[in-house]
Amino acid sequence: MATSEKQHFEVLIIGAGPIGLACGIEAQKAGKSYVIIDKGTLVNSLYNYPVFMTFFSTSERLEIGGVPFVSINPKPNRNEALEYYRRVTEKFQLNVKLFEEVFSCQKQENGLFQVETAKANYEAENVIIATGFYDVPNLMNIPGEDLPKVIHYYKDPHYYAFSKVLVVGANNSSVDVALETFRKGAEVTMVIRGNDMGPNVKYWVRPDIENRIKEGSIKAYFESNLKEVKEQTAVISTPEGDIEIENDFVAAMTGYQPNFKLLEKLGVTLDENQTPIHNAETMETNLPGLYLAGVVCGGMDTHKWFIENSRIHAEQIIKDIAAKRN
Fold first, then answer.
1. Which of 300, 171, 150 lies closest to 226, judged by CA?
2. For residue 222, with 0-12 CB atoms within 10 Å meaning exposed, 13-18 middle and 19 or more buried, which class applies?
3. 244 secondary structure, DSSP code
4. How many other C-beta atoms are found inside a 10 Å radius of the C-beta of residue 4?
5. What's the topology of domain 6-136+256-325?
6. What's the CATH superfamily of 139-252?
7. Residue-level pLDDT at 270
8. Which residues face 116 on adjacent strands?
9. How does pLDDT run across 262-300, given as a tens digit for each residue?
């Protein structure tokens, strides 16, 4: 239950991911009072990435606040990123409130935002939404998708050792699941909607998955769709007709989307592609004082923004806030 006493900040940031932290750093540099709130842990999305995930970006492109990101290899892994962003948070002594879900955020007649969370009530002159896109999976909307055997988030391959794993998708997350579980002894089948792997699959991984499929170590059904999930089997719709195979787990790596319901509740206008309407120069939405930062700006096009190309949003937003105050 939130406390009744309101805490006032010039800037309230929802989301303690890399971009949310970057916004906090810029607010701090500009002398603005601020708070960063997240419903989970620090960089919660990165924490929930697969244990052995390697970033596509090199370490220097993931840096925030001018703090060097030193990694063993040019492309850092998940654990190195968690350590880096935790140390950045410590260095700047960022005002972060974790495991504090935002229940409501409403703009009052006096121009201030009233924000209620699970633990407190806040009053903010400006609000920045930096919630990313990892919280809401794209559902397949097929029978059996709600069975416990179906996962939309994958963590560690050992759990699936010696099981029959069906992987849906052809992009990086799908390829990682297929290869990692295969190497832990799983019998892996992939269901791919197109006739090839996704164009954005990491270039150093693509030959591996293509060779495993070619040699038959991993079975792949192209131009196919998962039609139904049952307790012990799964039905796949292929060009040759429906087939039913034995199956223990379904890893539906079908992608994710921003929390559009949260944006709409806040009063942000979305276009026909679910892209939030905002000023590309200032990142301000149709609601004055409410800003967007990071992947959430791209709507359903979650491949448009990454850490490396959206870090600049923090500077744009705080610059606009400072200019308005002046």
1. 150
2. middle
3. E
4. 7
5. FAD/NAD(P)-binding domain (3.50.50)
6. FAD/NAD(P)-binding domain (3.50.50.60)
7. 85
8. 104, 121
9. 888 778 888 877 888 899 999 999 889 999 998 888 776
